[in-house]
Design a protein that fits this description.
The protein is α+β, with helices and mostly antiparallel strands. The chain has 2 domains: 35 residues; 113 residues, Immunoglobulin-like (Sandwich). Helix content is 35%, strand content 27%. The chain is built from 4 helices and 7 strands, in the order H-H-E-E-E-E-E-E-E-H-H. A 4-stranded antiparallel beta sheet has the order 4-3-6-7, covered by helices on one side. Strands 1-2-5 form a 3-stranded antiparallel beta sheet. A hairpin with a 5-residue loop joins strand 6 and strand 7. It is elongated and about 90 Å long. The N and C termini lie far apart (58 Å).
Length: 184
C-alpha cells in the first residue's frame, strides 16, 4: 500500500526513544495531579466558610384523634462563622417544578442570619417528607450559593440540584402533547 507523501514523511520522522515518551507522559501526569490537588484545596477552603453554618433537622409526626397524621421537621440553624449567612431557604422538589417551602425566618423575611446566631423553625407537611429531597440553600459570606440535603447534611452538586428542580412531565402528558402536535 502506497501512502504517497504522507508515508514518506512518516518514515523520516524521529519519534524519540521509549525514555523520551515515558518522561513526557510522567510530566503530563505530574502537571495534572498538581492542578487537581490545587483545585481540591481551593474547593475545601471555600467549603470551610459554608461548614460554619450548621443545621440539624429532626423529623417527627403528629397524630390527633380523628385527624390524619401530619409530619413536621424541626430545623435548628447556627451560624458559627464571623460573617452573616444570607437568603436561607428551605425547599423541595415538587411535581412538576421545585417550590420553596419557606424562608428560614418566619414569613418571607430573608434577613441574614447574624454571626453566632441560633434559629429554630418548624415546617409542617401533610405526608412524610423523608424521600422528597428536602434541601436547604444559602449564600455564604463570599456570595457562593450552597445547597445541602436537609436530612442527610451532605452538599449537593450542581447536577443534583438541577435534577431536583427539573420539571417532570408524566408519560401520559408527553403522549398527549405528541398527539396534539400530530393533529395540527
Amino acid at each position: 500500500m502506497d501512502l504517497g507523501w504522507f508515508g514518506a514523511w512518516w518514515i523520516t520522522q524521529s519519534w524519540g526513544t521509549v525514555a523520551d515518551w515515558v518522561t513526557g507522559l510522567l510530566t503530563a501526569l505530574t502537571l495534572w495531579l498538581g492542578f487537581s490537588i490545587l483545585a481540591s484545596d481551593r474547593k475545601r477552603e471555600k467549603q470551610r466558610l459554608a461548614n460554619r453554618f450548621m443545621t440539624h433537622a429532626m423529623l417527627g409526626a403528629k397524630a390527633s384523634s380523628g385527624k390524619p397524621q401530619t409530619w413536621f421537621i424541626e430545623v435548628r440553624a447556627f451560624n458559627g462563622g464571623d460573617m452573616p449567612i444570607n437568603e436561607v431557604l428551605v425547599s423541595m422538589p415538587y411535581h412538576p417544578v421545585e417550590f420553596m417551602v419557606d424562608t428560614f425566618r418566619a414569613g418571607m423575611n430573608v434577613e441574614p442570619i447574624a454571626p453566632q446566631e441560633t434559629l429554630k423553625r418548624t415546617f409542617d407537611f401533610a405526608d412524610s417528607p423523608v424521600n422528597k429531597g428536602l434541601m436547604i440553600a444559602f449564600y455564604d459570606a463570599d456570595g457562593i450559593k450552597w445547597h445541602r440535603d436537609l436530612l442527610k447534611g451532605n452538599y449537593l452538586s450542581k447536577r443534583e440540584v438541577k435534577r431536583y428542580s427539573k420539571p417532570v412531565t408524566p408519560w401520559y402528558l408527553k403522549i398527549f402533547k405528541l398527539r396534539k402536535l400530530i393533529v395540527r
